[in-house]
Design brief:
Elements: E1 3-4, E2 11-12, E3 20-21, E4 25-26, H1 37-44, H2 51-54, E5 58-60, H3 63-74, E6 80-83, E7 92-93, E8 98-99, H4 101-116, E9 120-125, E10 144-148, H5 154-160, H6 167-179, E11 183-191, H7 203-209, E12 215-220, H8 223-230, H9 240-257, E13 261-264
Parallel strand pairs: 1-5, 3-6, 6-9, 9-10, 10-11, 11-12, 12-13
Antiparallel strand pairs: 2-3, 4-5, 7-8
Helix pairs in contact: 3-4
Protein name: Radical SAM protein
Keywords: Iron, Iron-sulfur, Metal-binding
Domain Radical SAM core: 22-188
Length: 280
């Protein structure tokens, strides 16, 4: 796998529910088309040329060396570190039906190194969690493992998440961690409208699939970005405000009934500032 070097790794994120973060990979083989904010930023800053270049991930070869220098410097400022906002830490290779080994190995070493200094880690993937994480002698029980799940419709997946792991496999890998007593969460965003996914009104099906998770984050799709990305004609679905309010209400009611913590992202109907520090 191609590698690059960086001058720094740890940084404070501006994402509303984040704290500190690391992006130890440039690019993502999943090739999501929501659009992918990370890919657009990578193109803007000249890190990649185009979509195909984005789908050829590059490892930050000096990531562990940077961590050794930066952990002592920032440790007292860090509540937790998130992997990742600009890539996927357990990236799936659809052609070989597996987690990409080099990425998995580096991610596990990073989590282990942060945990060794008492720094907990939150993780989010559209890939598959490896069984290595079940080893609580190596990895902290305080880590929180999440998946992104915005649909169960395979036609939608084929169009918008073409190379990520299957929905079922993704859920099962998270459930295995939950059954082992580890902390799990789910990001249901960017959530599509029925214009993009005919099953979107039935979010109950997704919620029932992930009933074991301890936390849920929900957020709407930004249609303006979708228009700019793929040249769609409409800037919004005709009933988007009402739709997202109704769906957010279903998420809130489900979480309250099942004793699940939740956060409705800013800009989405029923968002609440009091819940933004969901990982604090």
């Amino acid at each position: 796998m191609e590698c690059i070097a960086r001058k720094s790794l740890l940084y404070k994120t501006k994402v509303e529910y984040g704290d500190w973060t690391i992006n130890h990979i440039v690019g993502c083989k999943h090739g999501c088309r929501f659009p992918c904010y990370a890919m657009m930023m990578a193109r803007k800053f000249g890190w990649i040329k185009d979509y195909e270049d984005w789908r050829k991930p590059k490892l930050v070869k000096n990531a562990l060396d940077l961590l050794e220098k930066e952990i002592p410097k920032y440790k007292n400022q860090i509540d937790f570190v998130h992997l990742c906002f600009m890539t996927d830490p357990f990236m799936y290779d659809a052609e070989k039906d597996r987690i990409i080994p080099d990425i998995k190995d580096l991610t596990l070493k990073i989590i282990e190194r942060l945990n060794r200094d008492g720094i907990r880690v939150t993780i989010l993937t559209k890939g598959i969690y490896p069984d290595d994480l079940l080893n609580t002698q190596r990895f902290s029980k305080n880590n929180e493992y999440g998946i992104t799940l915005v649909s169960l419709n395979n036609n939608f997946k084929e169009q918008y998440e073409p190379y990520s792991s299957s929905y079922e496999t993704r859920v099962e890998s998270l459930k295995k961690l939950a059954k082992a007593g580890l902390k799990t969460w789910v990001s249901i965003e960017p959530y599509p409208t029925p214009e993009l996914d005919p099953d979107a009104a039935q979010i109950e099906k997704i919620l029932e699939k992930i009933h074991f998770a301890k936390k849920i984050i929900f957020g709407k799709l930004n249609y303006n970005k979708l228009v700019n990305y793929c040249g769609r004609n409409s800037h919004n679905w005709k009933n988007s405000q009402e739709f997202y309010e109704a769906i957010a209400r279903k998420v809130i009611d489900f979480c309250n009934t099942n004793n699940i913590q939740y956060h409705i992202k800013a800009g989405t109907p029923l968002s609440n500032e009091d819940h933004r520090n969901i990982f604090k």
